[in-house]
Amino acid sequence: MPDCAGDPIDVQLTHEPILPAQVESRAEDRAAGAIVTFTGVTRECHLGKTVQFLEYEAHEFLARQGLRELAADAQRRFALCRVCIVHRLGRLEVGEVSVCIAVSSAHRAAAFEACRFLIDSLKTTVPIFKKEHYTDGSSPEWVGPDGAPVTGALDGETGRREETAARGDGTAALRQELHANRKAVQSAIRHPKSAIVLRGSEMPSHFSVHKLHNGLTVAIEFMPHTVSTALGFLVQTGARYEEQRYDGVSHFLEHMLFKGTAKRTWLDINREFDEMGARYNAYTGWEETCYYAWVLNDQTPRAMDLLSDMLAPKLSESEFNTEKKVILEEIARYRDMPEHVAFEEAMKIAFHGGRLASNILGSQDSIGRLTRDEMHQYFQRRYVPSNITLVACGKVDEAALLSQVEQLWGSRSGPRIDNAPQPPDFQSGTKTVVRKDLVRQHTVLLWPALAIADRRSLAAMLLANVLGDDMNSRIYWSLRHTGLAEDAEASYWGFSDTGLIAAHVSCDPAHYGKVMSILRTEAGKLKKGIQEEELQRAKNRARTSLVFHAETPFNRFRQLMHQWSMRRELLTTEEMLARVAEVTLDDLYALLEKFPLDGEGASATLGPAAKTATALSAKLAPRAQPKRKPNPKPKPKPKPKAKPSLRAAKKAKSKRG
Predict the structure, then answer these.
(1) 646, 431 Cβ separation under 8 angstroms
(2) How far apart are CA 99 and CA 121, in angstroms?
(3) How far apart are the C-alpha atoms of 653 and 286, rounded to whole Å?
(4) What is the per-residue DSSP string for 225-280?
(5) Residues 440, 442, 443, CA angle at the centre, nearest 5°?
(6) How many whole angstroms separate alpha carbon 8 and alpha carbon 5?
(7) What would the DSSP string read from start to end of 416-476?
(8) Among 114, 50, 51, which Cα is nearest to 83's?
């Protein structure tokens, strides 16, 4: 039996029959306590048809290289002693072995996980192509990994020429051909329209969506490489679904779900989360409320039980009265945050008379007069199974989780409710809030944009990034880099039926007029021309953020929670990257045509400046009409007074604690 010396990775492509015993023997190692073998065979039936035989072909050099990279990745991740992968090419009869994988490790758990990881990854990342021939004479086209159709010739000569070029024996032109071929194959594996393909470190995953008889939805993404699971309940309720007299009840109720159930006290809830070592919390927005926990895989059932119990709160009168004081303190704390107040005032202008103008936290008055019984009635209306989705991401035992969900939720019921709020109308206007206790001027400027449910909203996000990314954008260089503003950024905010591009800055009150003029000028100039390089930089930042957030179950959970709550869809990382890649300059210009950024918008400024924002906006806002001649009456300019300013407004979602 060999030891760990020598090359621990053995990968082969062969036209000869595969003997699993021989493959397993190559994984033997003196340091190994377990050897696990996977054997894939040609099946007789597929898609309701009888298979006569099957063919495999590959770009052989790229396939061998992909197999070796995959094996090396598995060896690092699972601390394997040896890895052997053999894949068959050519014609295979029914029952013949198509692929055999053997791994050895010190412990059986790592070997089992590694074997599954390798076959799942091989099927989705290695350029090996398949065609099935049926007894009825039909033979569908060649398909690549994930069943994607592949066009073009597949032959061994391609692989041999690529291998020769890679070894340096060919010409420079042939090396360039190899590089182009590799990129083309990678694009065929994923999304032909996408320039982004994850390889090497990519972890395959799959979705499943289930619905209980009472309407509860369960969405699962299985991530086989992970050692943790993030799970939580999304309740389709928030400030938009409240009656005005109950402003803040959704957020208050979120707090109360941590305050005890029929089975657990508030102390039990917090102690159990800590015993699990969980990362847990909750948040409330305008359109959703979420409760979640991130735990090691073996703690998933316990976390599921605890979260489910929390969604059946006791709502005791004494805890209600105590927590009301906490909420009132939180409202007061946010009133001391000028950027929050400025954003809140701008939203009141933009959506005057609608629920998006409401404060998620509520007000001192609305919370002060809210009763426990009114909260309980709201809970009974909104926290019903048909209005709740369980999302789980990680190495989830799907069958066990679904069984537990049925046990915990199967007997719960409630009315089915309509979740379609009245679409709001955007209104322009300005407001100044004088605060002599502040030394900076904080301002938020809002323009209407597409709803996040619209697939084109991605263009709005990239447009906002070009205008106001907080590290490299037009207003960053014109305002922050020059020292005129302490903060200057813009971002896209999406709701189910509307959207916003929000710009916010903070600066010395004396610079407010100049800052506003530059901000509006930069926004207006977008329609006159955006460079391809600007869009590409914005895309690069977006794709980096997407990939970084997809690397852990918790951040992936947040991505899926957002997708499901707003669009009722679940996208793989590759699908999200493909959508980013598809956005063009024409998409940005079309967006600017429909939602120009050279109008007045809705703005609010907060700070010591006494001069009204209305007067400044009228003076500084670019005109959408043809250019007008300036006032012919020459007037001496008055000495400028201290002027207002703009400030970053963070999304007004409250978090527990």
Answers:
(1) no
(2) 13
(3) 8
(4) T-SEEEEEEEES-SGGGS-GGGTTHHHHHHHHTTSBBSS-BHHHHHHHHHHHT-EE
(5) 150
(6) 8
(7) -----PPPPPP--EEEEEE-TT-SSEEEEEEEEE--TTSTTHHHHHHHHHHHH-SSSSHHI
(8) 114
Query: In DSSP terms, which residues pair with 133 in a beta bridge?
Result: 53
First to last CA, the chain: 58
Within 8 A by CB and 6+ apart from 117, the residues are: 74, 77, 78, 203, 224, 225
- Asked if residue 525 has pLDDT above 90, the reply is yes
- Stated pTM of the model: 0.65
- Measuring CA to CA, how many Å separate 405 from each of 211, 234, 293, 301, 385? 11, 15, 16, 10, 11
Q: Which tokens belong to 477?
A: 């260089």
Query: What residues does 500 pair with on adjacent strands?
Result: 448, 493
Out of 124-128, 224-228, 534-538, 603-607, pick the least confident. Answer: 124-128
CB atoms within 10 A of CB 529: 9
Instruction: Determine contact, residues 502/340, Cβ cutoff 8 Å.
Output: no
Q: What confidence score (pLDDT) does residue 610 get?
A: 59
Question: Which range is least confidently modeled, 156-160, 292-296, 315-319, 521-525?
Answer: 156-160
Question: In Å, how far are 384, 408, 477 from 190, measured between CA atoms?
Answer: 39, 39, 37
**Beta carbons within 8 Å of 448's beta carbon, 6+ residues apart:** 350, 426, 498, 499, 500, 595
Residue 505, both tokens: 């800055």
The stretch 388-395 carries a mean pLDDT of 95
How much of the chain exceeds pLDDT 70, in percent? 82
Q: Are strands 441-449 and 429-434 parallel, antiparallel or unpaired?
A: unpaired
**445, β-bridge pairs:** 503, 603
Report which of 498, 532, 383, 515 is spatially closest to residue 440, judged by C-alpha positions.
515
- Crossing angle between the packed helical segments 372-382 and 249-256, to the nearest 10 degrees: 90
CA 469 – CA 456 distance, rounded (Å) = 19
> What is the C-alpha to C-alpha distance for residues 306 and 275, in angstroms, rounded to an integer?
12
Write down the pLDDT at residue 136. 82
Burial of 184 (0-12, 13-18, 19+ CB in 10 A): middle
Report yes or no: 254 and 382 within 8 Å, Cβ to Cβ: no
pLDDT score of 182 more than 80: no
Check residue 143 and give its pLDDT: 78
Side-chain-side CA neighbours of residue 191 (13 Å): 18
Q: Residue 1 contacts by C-beta under 8 Å, 6 or more apart in sequence?
A: 28, 29, 30
Nearest 5 degrees, angle CA 351-CA 352-CA 353?
A: 110
Task: Indicate the DSSP class of residue 526.
Answer: G
